[in-house]
Structures are given as C-alpha cells and as structure tokens.
Amino acid sequence: MDITLKVNGTERRLAVDVRTTLLDALREHLDLTGTKKGCDLGQCGACTVLMDGQRVLSCFTLAVAAEGTEITTIEGLAGEEDPLHPMQQAFLEQDAYQCGYCTPGQIMAAIACVHEGHANSDDEIREYMSGNLCRCGAYPKIVAAVRQAKPLMERA
C-alpha cells in the first residue's frame, strides 16, 4: 500500500504492507533508527514517538493508521546545528541514562508527560512514565530531568 507519512516535518511516501508497524516503517523504510525496538509487544516503551503531540507506542501502531498525522521521533527534536530540546539537555545534565537504549523513548514520553500536564509532582511523573522501562534503573534521574525541563518547555 502506498502511504504518506509526515515525520519530523517532512512528508515521506512509502510502499508498505498493511501489517507494517509504524516502528518498522520508521526504522526499516525511513532509516530513522533512534526509535528502538525493545520488546515489540508494547510493554517497554522503547519505541515511543509523538503522534500529533501525544505519545504512542510505534510497535503497536500500524503505519497506515499514522497517515495524516504529524509524527515526531527523537531525530526531529533538534537538528545538528540547533540547540538540544530542553528535555534532551535535562537528560544530559541529570545523567538520566546509563546504557542509553531506552533513552529516546524515555525522552519522547517525558515530553508528552509535560505537554499533557502530568509533571506536577514527582509521583505524577513516576506514574506517567511507568510505561517506559529502564533496565539500568535510572528512574530517579529521569524524574529529575523531567522536573528540570518542565519550566523551560512551558516558556517555549
């Protein structure tokens, strides 16, 4: 099936099988490998991207269902010459990663956490972010990063 996906502000035409997930379309067809394939069962959050500003698990979303939406991946947050997104900067400053595998999904979910109004307390952040797993256990630092980025994101 021929579809057009708007990813990181650019429309891209693809020929995909109707069963192709958004995750596979991003990684295999568009070479956007920042979005990770973790469990491929919708349980770990490594594949989190934003669709029309809301977090979605791209392993659970069919590419054809994403047509007509605005998809943002980790690659779309800041260009090579641009400053980092406030959440990316906060993750760096708070050392909110270890192995880094889950970090793109964590950052995308954290952005949605702030935009959707779920970053008003540490408990609220932890609850919202509970769908994104970190095998290294960087959770306290992830919460600190969300807290740090929130006021900067609200001003932008």
Description:
This protein is about 35% helix and about 15% strand. A 5-stranded mixed β-sheet has the order 2-1-5-3-4, with helices on both faces. The chain has 2 domains: about 1-75, Beta-grasp domain (Ubiquitin-like (UB roll), Roll); about 85-155, [2Fe-2S]-binding domain (DNA polymerase, domain 1), CATH 1.10.150.120. It has helices at about 20-30, 85-95, 105-115, 120-130, 140-155, and strands spanning about 1-5, 10-15, 50, 55, 70. The chain has about 160 residues and is an alpha+beta fold. The chain contains 5 helices and 5 strands. Helix 2 runs antiparallel to helix 5 (about 140-155) and helix 3 crosses helix 5.
How is this fold's topology laid out?
Elements: E1 2-7, E2 10-15, H1 22-29, E3 48-51, E4 54-57, E5 70-72, H2 86-93, H3 103-115, H4 122-129, H5 139-155
Parallel strand pairs: 1-5
Antiparallel strand pairs: 1-2, 3-4, 3-5
InterPro entries: 2Fe-2S-bd (IPR002888), 2Fe-2S-bd_dom_sf (IPR036884), 2Fe-2S_ferredoxin-like_sf (IPR036010), 2Fe-2S_ferredoxin-type (IPR001041), 2Fe2S_fd_BS (IPR006058), Aldehyde_Oxdr_Iron-Sulfur (IPR052914), Beta-grasp_dom_sf (IPR012675)
GO molecular function, one term: oxidoreductase activity, acting on the aldehyde or oxo group of donors
Domain 2Fe-2S ferredoxin-type: 1-77
